[in-house]
UniProtKB/TrEMBL annotation:
UniProt-annotated location(s): Nucleus
Keywords of this entry: Nucleus
Pfam families attached to this UniProt entry: Fungal_trans_2
Annotated InterPro entries: Fun_TF (IPR021858)
Signal peptide residues on this chain, from the entry's feature table: none
GO BP term, example: positive regulation of transcription by RNA polymerase II
Organism: Colletotrichum phormii
Protein name: Fungal-specific transcription factor domain-containing protein
Domain of life: Eukaryota
Example of a GO cellular component annotation carried by this entry: nucleus
GO molecular function: DNA-binding transcription factor activity; transcription cis-regulatory region binding
Length: 437
């Protein structure tokens, strides 16, 4: 064995089971068409076989493979490929699978440079009516999403939001300026709409600024009628994600007050009545989302901890939506009886939920910060154990940040430094760039 090994040699020592969980029914891409060097080909395989399967709840539809890799393969000199290689290199280093920091940032910087060039070329092509504008738009959209992916994986800093805001603006402009969207572009834009809507809906629950909630309200209407992409990414229906956004919007309306002392008394009463009707409608719809097939907690068997059933993720997130709803809209606290009941139900489901993907992070975060009481040491232990196991799976930057926020909230409650803040207010303003997707 040589004393000094290249990153490629180290990467090849990854156990086969670490990169083998993929569905053979999904399309494979001929690397000879891409013309990658040896190390780059390995990073490509690593994304295809290890990372992409862990980005979706259901393997029936995987837009990272079926859309993003296709675009990268069709344009091997474009930004999408470099962004994919940057993500793979970052993930490999985080898990101790090899790759140097220099190589990570080489791919990342190259992706950004190419992305800027594509944006400029797109602007010129669109102005001149050239036919390549559509392909450039696809590469810009896909590489922007992958840059969000990279920044969330790396350290979940403000950078991911910068990319997300550009991506949302670009997507809305594309849809507004084109009467007919090619089928391949429509598929990508469907993915992008689901990606940004889901990220924004969850981010708004973690105390992000009102601007992101405004974007969520606009993007929500861009989702196409076909929702399998959103379900694959999140385990949620479009209706469930829409309700989550409606909760944040409604809470934002309440925080704006009545609009000033000069309003007529009748106007104030009318606004209050309208707000209450919206609140009651959301609560009723959240209860109606419960699937008939959901068993009681006593019927959960040890087998379901190993084999996740189809109802589990939607029900876990429905209960989490309810917990967030009561904390955000009604300012309910962890010690309130209905919050205790919801928290207990969520904690019963968590050990049965797979940690293969990151979909459990949001329920963990919400129940830990808004549901778990200061005296519940066993509940805190369960949360920390699940966070640790989730972190070991991928070493994602947003999982590290989520744990930091959770521990800060617990400390604040333990020393009673919340200064009378009720419900969700304990989260407001703690971290502005949090991603829980």
């Amino acid at each position: 064995m040589p004393v000094y090994e290249t990153s490629t040699q180290r990467a090849r020592k990854i156990p086969a089971d670490k990169i083998s969980r993929y569905s053979p029914s999904l399309p494979r891409f001929n690397l000879s068409l891409v013309g990658l060097q040896d190390n780059e080909a390995h990073l490509w395989h690593y994304f295809d076989n290890f990372i992409a399967p862990r980005c979706v709840v259901s393997c029936v539809k995987n837009p990272y493979r079926q859309i993003v890799l296709r675009i990268a393969a069709s344009s091997p000199h474009g930004p999408v490929l470099q962004a994919i290689l940057a993500v793979s290199a970052q993930q490999m280093q985080a898990l101790g699978h090899g790759e140097s920091t220099v190589r990570i940032w080489d791919h990342r910087n190259r992706a950004l440079e190419l992305l800027r060039g594509h944006v400029l070329a797109y602007s010129m092509s669109e102005a001149e009516g050239k036919p390549n504008a559509s392909m450039l738009a696809q590469e810009i959209m896909a590489s922007t999403m992958m840059m969000c992916f990279f920044e969330i994986l790396h350290d979940c800093s403000d950078a991911w939001k910068v990319h997300a805001n550009f991506g949302k603006s670009f997507l809305m402009n594309e849809l507004a300026s084109n009467q007919t969207i090619p089928s391949d572009s429509k598929e990508l834009f469907d993915f992008a709409a689901a990606y940004f809507t889901y990220h924004d809906a969850l981010a708004s629950t973690a105390g992000t600024n009102p601007g992101m909630q405004d974007s969520t309200s606009s993007l929500r209407h861009l989702l196409y009628s076909e929702e399998s992409t959103l379900e694959s990414l999140s385990g949620c229906s479009r209706r469930q994600v829409a309700l989550l956004s409606e909760i944040s919007d409604l809470a934002g309306q309440a925080s704006c007050g009545t609009g000033g002392a000069l309003q007529y008394h009748d106007d104030i009463l009318e606004r209050a009545s309208s707000w209450q009707q919206k609140r009651d409608t959301i609560e009723r719809n959240l209860h109606l989302l419960k699937e008939i097939s959901v068993p009681s907690s006593s019927e959960l068997s040890p087998k379901s901890a190993k084999e996740e059933t189809p109802w589990l993720v939607p029900e876990l997130k429905r209960l989490t939506c309810l917990l967030y709803f009561y904390a955000r809209v009604d300012e309910s606290n962890p010690s309130d009886p209905h919050m205790i009941r919801l928290t207990d139900k969520i904690l019963e489901l968590l050990p049965h939920t797979s940690l293969q993907t990151n979909t459990v992070l949001w329920p963990l975060f919400i129940v830990a910060t808004l549901g778990v009481r200061s005296e519940s040491d066993s509940d805190r232990k369960l949360i920390l154990e699940r966070l640790h196991l989730l972190q070991q799976t991928r070493q994602l930057g947003n999982v590290r940040k989520a744990r930091q926020i959770i521990e800060n909230v617990w400390k604040a409650r333990d020393i009673d430094s919340c200064k009378g803040k009720q419900g969700w207010a304990v989260l407001e303003g703690r971290y502005d760039a949090m991603s829980l997707a």
